[in-house]
Each structure stands twice: as C-alpha cells, then as structure tokens.
Amino acid sequence: MIVARDVVKSFGDNLVLDQVSLTLEKGEVVAVIGPSGSGKSTFLRCLIHLETIDRGSIDIAGNSLARQHIDGSSEYPPEPEIRRICGRMGMVFQSFNLFPHMTVLQNIIEAPLTVKKVPRDVIIPKAEALLGKVGLLAKRDNYPTRLSGGQKQRVAIARALAMEPDIMLFDEPTSALDPELTGEVLRTMRQLAEERMTMLVVTHEMGFAREAAHRVIFMDQGRIVEQGPAAQFFHAPQHERSRAFLGQML
Ligand SMILES: Nc1ncnc2c1ncn2[C@@H]1O[C@H](COP(=O)(O)OP(=O)(O)OP(=O)(O)O)[C@@H](O)[C@H]1O
Ligand SMILES: [Mg+2]
C-alpha cells in the first residue's frame, strides 16, 4: 500500500529524513518508534503530502505521489492527482483537530459531504455506525468541548474512517491524553487492526507496538536504524541505539 524509497527531507540545513525507505503491505500494522526529533512525524507528513520531499519516491496504493527525477530531485503530479492519491489515506494527529463549532456528527460528515459529495441520507447512518463502533453514539449531538480527550480522539478516528481510507496514519494519537484515557483509544485502534486496516502508527506506547503491530521501525536522527517483526524487535533488538531506547521506554 505504501512504498517509500530513499526519502530525503531537510528543513534549511537540518537534514531530517536521511534516505528513509519503507514498505507497508495491505492489512499490515507497523509501529514507528524513536526518540524525539528523529523525524517520525515529518515522515508521516511527507507520506500524506503535508510536507514535500527533496529526494526519493513515494507510491501510495500503486500510484506515484512523488517520483525521483533523473537529477535526483523529487517531482509531484498536478494538485488534483495529489489530492486523489492522498485521499486514500486518513490521518489522526496528537491534537485531535476537531472543528469546535460543529457537533460530533457534523465533524464526521463534513468532509464526506463537501469533498466526496456523499448524500446526507447516506452519510448520516454511516457516521452513526462509526460512532457506535468507537462507543460514542450517545455523544452524537455534543460539541467537542464537552468531550474528554479520549472521546475527542475517538471522534477524530471515526471522522477519518468516514472518508473510507485504505490506509490510516496515526501520529502519537494518545500522547496528549491522561493515562486512564489512553486505553480507550488504543482499544479502538486495536479493533481497527483486527479488522485488517492498513496502519502506520507513530507511538510511544510500547505495549501497543509489541502487541498490535506486526512490524516495528526504529528511527533515530532521520534514519531507520532497525526494523523487524515486533516480537523479535522487543525480545532481541539488534542495535545498540534500539537497546538504549527500549531501556529508557520500558
Ligand atoms: N516545519 C518545520 N520547520 C523546521 N523544522 C522542522 C519542522 N518540522 C520538524 N522540524 C524539525 O525536524 C526534526 C524532526 O522533527 P519531527 O517532528 O519529525 O520529529 P519526531 O520524531 O516526530 O519527534 P517527536 O517524538 O518529538 O514528535 C526536528 O529537528 C524538528 O525540529
Ligand atoms: Mg512527532
């Protein structure tokens, strides 16, 4: 579903992604872990075109989002094509980013109505089903300010799912939450994983990475230092830096 090859990205003279390559298979759940500033968020943001890459290539579900030009630089297709390709992905951020002036239901139906032109009578039952799935149907007509952080994040997940993405990207979806609210969001994500959603998850939750992810990618200083099956990575990390990181986290 995702093939990224030798992605290079700098902010000014700060090299943030240094030849990062990744493949994500359909139905696979991959956790991206690593210290602060290692480039995890930037990598996700590049995959969904919230940032552009300098070099390398990115394919999403068989479509070329960025291809490497003969001179090494990356080139992008026209904007409508980019939007079509990135429309196959949903993203959930640390700070839920709900629309504060809209109810929970309105938050979920807004993009399907306006971007995908899904009829109201089709999207409303679907939104309600999604709310049921994340356990928040009773909050249908509430405004986000009336919700807990965990509830807001579950609405954000339902909102992303309402666009029927093939791939879900999560950037530390639980790190703004109190520990007692983290569990309910992780449960929703585990359920998605069990339904074979293709997921790329940046997380500090080592328990989630170990139990729910098929594969773990460890990034440090803009590079993938190590990747492997979750069980293997946590049981016997191969690199000194991975071991040091896990030592701190566990
Ligand atoms: N918009 C930006 N402009 C300039 N520099 C940026 C920008 N976004 C990120 N950076 C820099 O890129 C580097 C990687 O940041 P990034 O947010 O990708 O790290 P991260 O691994 O997600 O860290 P964290 O675990 O703290 O979220 C950092 O040095 C950061 O300062
Ligand atoms: Mg980050």
UniProtKB/TrEMBL annotation:
This protein's record includes keyword Nucleotide-binding: yes
SUPFAM superfamilies reported in the protein's UniProt record: P-loop containing nucleoside triphosphate hydrolases
Location(s) in or outside the cell: Cell membrane
Domain ABC transporter: 2-246
Main location: membrane
Domain of life: Bacteria
Keyword Amino-acid biosynthesis included in the entry's annotation: no
Membrane topology, from the record: Peripheral membrane protein
Alphabetical keyword list: Amino-acid transport, ATP-binding, Cell membrane, Membrane, Nucleotide-binding, Transport
GO CC list: plasma membrane
Family: Belongs to the ABC transporter superfamily.
Database matches in PANTHER family: AMINO ACID IMPORT ATP-BINDING PROTEIN, GLUTAMATE_ASPARTATE IMPORT ATP-BINDING PROTEIN GLTL
Protein name per its UniProtKB record: Amino acid ABC transporter ATP-binding protein
